[in-house]
Design brief:
Layout (H helix, E strand, L loop, with lengths): L1 H17 L13 E3 L8 E3 L1 H6 L6 H10 L5
C-alpha cells in the first residue's frame, strides 16, 4: 500500500511540475509513515511541508494541489 501511495504522490508532483506550479528541477523524497494519532488518518507524508517554503507556497495549499492530482482509488 505504501508503494502505491508513493507512486501516486510522485505522479501528482510531476503533474504540478508540468503545470509550472512547482519547478521541474526540485529534489524531494516521499516518506510514508503511520500517523501518531488515528484521528489524523492511517498514513502521513510531509513532502508538502518540505516543498512549500522553498518554493513560496503555503503547506496546506500545496497539499491540496497535490491531492487534487491524485486519481481516485
Amino acid at each position: 500500500m505504501k508503494k502505491l501511495i508513493q507512486q501516486l504522490l510522485a505522479q501528482a508532483i510531476e503533474q504540478l511540475q508540468k503545470e509550472n506550479i512547482l519547478p521541474k528541477d526540485i529534489s524531494y523524497s516521499l516518506h510514508i509513515e503511520k500517523t501518531r494519532s488515528q484521528e489524523h488518518g492511517d498514513l502521513a507524508c510531509n513532502t508538502a511541508m518540505l516543498l512549500a517554503k522553498p518554493y513560496g507556497k503555503k503547506p496546506r495549499e500545496l497539499a491540496e494541489e497535490i491531492v487534487k492530482r491524485i486519481p481516485g482509488h
